User: What shape does this take?
Amino acid sequence: YCITYYADKKLLFTSCWDKQIRALNFDTGAVESSFVGAREPVLAMHLNDNKLYLAGEDPVIRCYDLENGKS
Assistant: This one.
C-alpha cells in the first residue's frame, strides 16, 4: 500500500494488506525486521527524527520509535 525510505539506515519500509510493516535492506532486499503496524491495513507512513508514523483504515495514528522499538 505504501513505502518510505530511511536513509540513515538504508532501510525501505513497506506496508501491505496483511497489516505488516517490513523493513527491507535497501542494498540487498532482505527483510531486516517486520511487525504488525495496525489493526487494519496501513495506508500512509512518514519518517521524522527516527520515528515512523503510520495511518490506516482504523481511526488511529501510530508512532514507532525506530531507535528503541517502542510505540
Summary: DSSP finds no helices and seven strands in the chain. The radius of gyration is 11 Å.
